[in-house]
Amino acid sequence: MKLEDEIKQKKFKNDFHKLAVNLIYTHGWLSNHQAEFFKKFDITGAQYNILLILRGQHPNPASINLLKDRMLDKMSDASRLVERLKNKGLVEREICPDDRRKVEVKITNSGIELLKKMDDLEDKFENLFANIKSSEAKMLNELLDKLRG
User: Fold this and answer.
1) Does residue 106 contact residue 58 with C-beta atoms inside 8 Å?
2) 132: which residues sit within 8 A by CB, 6+ positions away?
3) Helix or strand (DSSP H, E) at 91
4) Most-buried pick from 30, 39, 88, 90 (CB within 10 A)?
5) Single pTM value for the model
6) Of 79, 99, 98, 82, whose CA–CA distance to 90 is shortest?
């Protein structure tokens, strides 16, 4: 559906203004769908992001700083997210033996199993993109990369 119809606005200052509004609106639309997907697994999108990073590091640990650097949402509090995941039994957190100021985080077997279940359902989430072709997705990715410079 067209942005103008979704937000009931017919005019924009210019195409760049419309682009900014469209990106913000689409981010919200995608976030709402993601939240519904994650709700089934009792985690948030930011927690999912941490788990994916840790699975990529597995069996090696990751520092909180590494997690912060690689997270999609730079405003998220990695330490707090790790604590919540630890309380759910999805990650382990240990003080680094070589540097007591450093915390090392590892995904647990339960965390890996949860991600496997989510991987099996990921196709359903990708159906959100059914209205665009693979070539269009590639072009949009290139344009978004160009936008960020």
Assistant:
1) yes
2) 140
3) strand 91-95
4) 90
5) 0.86
6) 82
